Amino acid sequence: MCYTLYSNATKAMIGNYAGVPCKYTSPLKGLSDYVRTFYEKGCDKKCNSTLKFKNAKKLVAEADGVVLVMGTYLSIKVEALDRTEIDLPGQQNLLFLEVAYAAKGPVILVIMSRGGMDIEFAKCHPKITSILWIGIPGQEGGGALADIIFGRSNPCGRLPITWYPRSYVDLVPMTNTNMRPNPTTGQPGQTYRFYRGKTICSFGFGLSHSSYIYKLIKASNLVSIPLNQARSCCSSSCNAIDVADSFCNGLVFYVDIMVTNTGMMARSKSLSVAVLFSSYGLQRTRKKSWLISRRFGWRHDRNLC
Asked: Which residues form the Glycoside hydrolase family 3 C-terminal domain (predicted)?
């Protein structure tokens, strides 16, 4: 098995707010604890040169499996420094495509970054078996990554942000903080609540080594929303009711759901309830809102209600 680019990037693992770790477990170290490994950097962190691509391609042509660790670095995105694009930096896209094409075995793409990336080029690639976003994983991030890849732990994370296509940055100026879509300006809306365009990965998306069966047992057919104050929307052409002033203690309702873990591994699982909004008769209405999310843990072949 072999690894390229950020596999040994200990600084990118801990970010710029961390203290001084006692030790690091880089992706290279964590994966090396499981199997014999070979490492090739592929390019430097800016990845503006393709000179080392040939070394990476030569290595992966002989490897049984490939883990590509890619992403951003501290001089691209930190507090008070915003990205100007959401592609992988430099020539990382090209590095991925050339390495994946040359690889003899399956390829796992690992993204280490502070935010979403446009990885559409990798999602449907025939050599890709999985894609993992590990964010800024911390000093033991490499060990956690290896445990997931080799099945020692069962991932249960959910994306806390929407991953947009690269064209999104051209539609929404960085200084525009309006959430709702605006057909006049072409603003498509922001966040999962209002954005209705194509996504690379949606808010709340997440996979695991297990599979599940969901069954709705009971739910309210009608939920009443008592209003403290009724008024028109900000738009003069919108006749909807603003329920921002409704009393929360009058909005209680119950949903009974049974979830069966049909896989072979125990794990924790996030169960979330969202409300979907119809666009009928409303202008620039929100798409949905997350109401509640709870995490539970249970063994395989067990039901959770």
From this structure: 8-207
